[in-house]
């Protein structure tokens, strides 16, 4: 039973981490390398995360500078940024790609807030799926005779408490991100 609980706890933490990364990739009015680092760039025919082919920095509050390791990849980087849903226009000088981050409009803030809520719900669904799998594993253990009915109920209670804790954590991350988006 401890194995099941430990595995569920690990998966819960992974769900929180993945949700946090999703939120980081949603742009606010400030420049953050997390905004583009997971962007997939077609690099010599292979889809490669941008952070593996370039250094990304934020020298100013509203500017990202992308310094590719290979200058020949600049057009591919620009294409990936333009085709993404970020709504940003890159410019380059042959050495680096500059990505100015414009101020968000009220309409865009609301759109991004909806996107944050969708990503949060995906995170909650992931947490609930982990709970379902753990409960099934506990029931299976009880069927085999490896644990008692009391162990099953105790385990289910523990799983539910963890589920509630992690869903609350996702909700807090969501509220924080929405608040960040609504700042002027």
Helix content: 55-70%
**Strand/helix succession:** HEEEEHEEHH
Mean pLDDT: 89
- Tell me the radius of gyration: 21 Å
Q: Helical region count? A: 4
What does this structure look like?
The chain is an alpha+beta fold. It is built from four helices and six strands; from the N terminus they run αββββαββαα. The strands form two sheets. The chain has a four-stranded antiparallel sheet, covered by helices on one side. A two-stranded antiparallel sheet has the order 1-2. Strand 1 and strand 2 form a beta hairpin. It is elongated, with a radius of gyration of 21 Å. The model has no long low-confidence stretch (mean pLDDT 89).
Layout of SSEs?
Blueprint: H1 2-24, E1 40-43, E2 46-49, E3 54-60, E4 63-68, H2 74-83, E5 91-92, E6 97-100, H3 106-144, H4 149-182
Antiparallel strand pairs: 1-2, 3-4, 4-6, 5-6
Helix pairs in contact: 1-3, 1-4, 3-4
Structure, briefly:
58% of the residues lie in helices and 15% in strands. With 184 residues, it is α+β, with helices and mostly antiparallel strands.
